[in-house]
Target: Phosphate-specific transport system accessory protein PhoU
Amino acid sequence: MREVFHQSLEDVQARLVEISELVTAAIDKATRAFGTSDVALAEEVIEADAIIDEKAVELDELAIQILARQQPVARDLRIVVAALRVSASLERMGDIAEHIAQLTRMRFPERAIPKGLKSTFTKMGELDVEVARTLTELLRTEDLSLLETLRALDDKLDDGHLSVFEKVLSDAWKGEAAATVDATLASRYLERFADHAVSVAKKVAYLATGDWKPDTETIAVIVAGGEIVD
Amino acid sequence: MREVFHQSLEDVQARLVEISELVTAAIDKATRAFGTSDVALAEEVIEADAIIDEKAVELDELAIQILARQQPVARDLRIVVAALRVSASLERMGDIAEHIAQLTRMRFPERAIPKGLKSTFTKMGELDVEVARTLTELLRTEDLSLLETLRALDDKLDDGHLSVFEKVLSDAWKGEAAATVDATLASRYLERFADHAVSVAKKVAYLATGDWKPDTETIAVIVAGGEIVD
Model:
């Protein structure tokens, strides 16, 4: 029984890594399609999002199955609960890649990236791909030092987001309203993507350390595998 | 023991209703502050968001505690898992109210609502307050007919979102880039708020019917409280 259980937990982890790889491919393609107005590549991302959604639902079903059958406690319980949250964040990251692809398709054959913002958005896209790769690595290895790498990438994306607004709001900005709308939405999506990744990484850190929210006695008791007296 | 357990589940529900009430107050104040450039009211929303976040974390801790101590199965298990997801969505809805309040504060003493969009944004704000009230009622009563009410409100908010873009992209639009950015972000926030509410309502429906995703055998087995054979 214990062996079956640990196989299930490994299965949970392997599925999270798999979904994270799909999200990495999605954001890579979506940001490249956005940069090059490649509508075929954008369509590919939009179509593939259903697969990410489906795999997230399957993972949730597995997690609920494990809770029902194996009734895990302590660290095992935390893994399963965190997996439910991580899958929700990964699914949302996939949605963001899809939104970026939709912006590309909506503007086609016009360029989706407004004039004057090409280098900023290219850089932000590359940062998001690095975010997704780092997150996948963190899920695979549980190497918590990668949380700091993700935070640093997230800071750079926040800087990029601010610089988009600075450009759009500067006197030099000659974009039409449509360009302003596109820049605003794209920048918001690219920045949110990294927020979700940091949120996932924090959940993995909680798994490893039991420190979901510092100084919470309840969690400490659960981590210790103990009973809580009312 | 069973009595203690059912008290815990009632506690979970009561806390979800409480958080939903706080979110309702937040979106009501945030949209009114946005409409009237009331920076004091906006500050109130920004400060109060920490309370919503804290209550969501406390609810998560309670849910994990219940899973660890009571090891619920079947419908009870589904209630606890759904509560974890609902609390995450409510917390996110609180964040959106905060973002709208931040837009108001950022523009003060200028008006946050761009010229020509006052009536659209007022209407969308009122719809979001109705969304939050309906959601609270659904959490309190588990009256699933309210899911349809929420879907109808969500459709109206999608229409509002589209009409904002139509205005901003029309020849008649004379707004500066800053006004276009504000309109884009505000409209996106107001529309997303309702998406989250529909997502919560679907989770409650899943609780009542076991129909998280139709035609999923695993869920059917769990609902029946049965064991799953590998």
